[in-house]
Amino acid sequence: MDKLERYRQIARRVVEEYASHKPSNGQVDSYPVIDPVGDHYMAVNVGWDRYYRIQGPYVHLDIIGGKVWIQYDGTNRPVADELEAAGVPKEDIVLAEKPPEVRQYTGYAIG
Description:
Helix content: 25-40%
Distance between the termini: 24 Å
CATH class: Alpha Beta
Number of domains: 1
Largest sheet: 5 strands, mixed
Strand order of the largest sheet: 1-2-3-4-5
CATH architecture: 2-Layer Sandwich
Structural class: alpha+beta
Low-confidence stretches: none
Radius of gyration: 14 Å
CATH topology: TATA-Binding Protein
Mean pLDDT: 95
Number of strands: 5
Strand content: 35-45%
CATH superfamily: XisI-like
């Protein structure tokens, strides 16, 4: 299996794992949104917590240029750690939510 296909499977698995956990507050559902053609992978919440509408991604991964870009990580279990544990090396993980000039200090890929 080539690297791109392996990263697609890992991204899918990681997002599905995050989405399998139901939020503890309110009537909120969590589910994966996966676009394997465009290489976009998200875990999203949708529902209500009392009078507040809950809607949006809490994990967003893209595969760009052979690297996994963490566009957003709103979790208490860092997505980068999960990707590394699944076999993605640090040099192929981009913390895209960090400013480009800061990425060189993270230990992960710059871009």
